[in-house]
Amino acid sequence: MKILFYFFLVSTLAGMMACQDPSNQNSNETTTPGQSGNPTIDNITNKIKNNPNDVSLYVSRAQAFRRLGGYDEAIQDINHAIKMDSTHYEYFLFLGDVLMDYNRSKDAIRVINSAVYRFPDNPQCLLKQAEFYHILKQYHQSTSALNALLLHDPQNAQAFFIFGQNFKELKDTTRAIQSFQKAVDLDPDIIAGWINLGNLWSEKGPQIAKKYFETAISIDSTNIYALNSYALFLGNQDKFQESIRLYRKIATIDPQFSDGFFNAGIMYLSIDSIQQAHRQFDLAVKTNPTFAKGYYYRGLTAAKLGDLESAKNDYNQALKIDPKLSKAADALNLLK
Q1: Nearest alpha-carbon partner for 319 in 334, 332, 310
Q2: What's the rounded mean pLDDT across residues 308-324?
Q3: In this structure, are residues 311 and 335 in contact, taking their beta carbons and an 8 Å threshold?
Q4: From CA 149, how far away is CA 129, in angstroms rounded?
């Protein structure tokens, strides 16, 4: 595998030059707000008032703010922590994660590039850089970061997992399979690796795929993503009843997993159980009111059951959420 280290070095240097202040915000102010009404936040704030030079307190409060969705406050606190002590790479990674949570992806990648520049031999910084470039669909830059990472840590399972994700998005199935296989060989507990292998083998090797899905579930029998992937696979193999049984299990594990209800509805439709399918689509939109396809399929099953007015309402709701959902538009025109 060719190591694109020159490109990687140039990109990180450019990122560092563009990121004198990691979050592009003024980090010169210490945050000492009044009582917020949240016991955890207020407790840490009181400690900061008594110990204003304790950097760990700002980090703790930033973490608490993030959990509550207070991204501006979290960014301000972690920036202050970095100003007090910039020797901890974890602070930069945390700031990058908060910015990504906050949909500030450009700022996030600048922060991580800065971290890589400051800590060039740190595998976690390189791994985060690869992860963020993958999220931004910059797969070649992600791969460059992974190549640099493997120079320092050639047996990093997470690196091979992200390689697999990159190759999958680039439609290079062979290398995606090789990378995911290497990841699970190094760390068998990477459930997402087994799931991806199952999905990639589903068409050309169903028996192999089945073993991968079963391995994922054996590691964690309550993992709804493993169960959902296996249930979809079984449905594609025309094993609808087995698939439906898995979706019943998923519903007991996570009653808010709308995709599970939707997929179960598709399975019921496949065996012409219209009433049961309608019930599943109804649960799908109740657990996710913005599920356009859920409304379309609830409308479809309502029409099959003879409730044309409900069907019309559902098609209209689907189009409000997704005006490009042509199936809903076509179905609505048939009712006019």
Answers
A1: 332
A2: 97
A3: yes
A4: 10
Q: Virtual CA dihedral for 80, 115, 89, 130, nearest 10 degrees?
A: 130
Q: What residue type is assigned to position 185 of the chain?
A: D
Percent of the chain beyond pLDDT 70? Answer: 89
Write the burial class of residue 323 (CB in 10 Å: 0-12 exposed, 13-18 middle, 19+ buried).
exposed
Contacts of 231 (CB under 8 A, 6+ apart): 243, 244, 246, 247, 250, 260, 263, 264, 267
Q: Which two tokens stand for residue 257?
A: 């997993």
Whole-number Cα distances in Å, 134 to 3, 22, 140, 171, 262 = 18, 20, 9, 14, 28
Residues 149-176 have a mean pLDDT of 96
| pTM assigned to the model | 0.82
Q: CATH for 1-154?
A: 1.25.40.10
* Strand (E) or helix (H) holding 260: helix 258-270
Q: Write out the two tokens for 112.
A: 């991580």
- Separation of alpha carbons 238 and 242, rounded Å: 9
- For the chain, the structural domain boundaries read 1-154
Query: Are 288 and 317 spatial neighbours (Cβ–Cβ below 8 Å)?
Result: no
Q: What is the pLDDT of residues 59-90, one digit of tens each?
A: 999 999 999 999 999 999 999 999 999 999 99
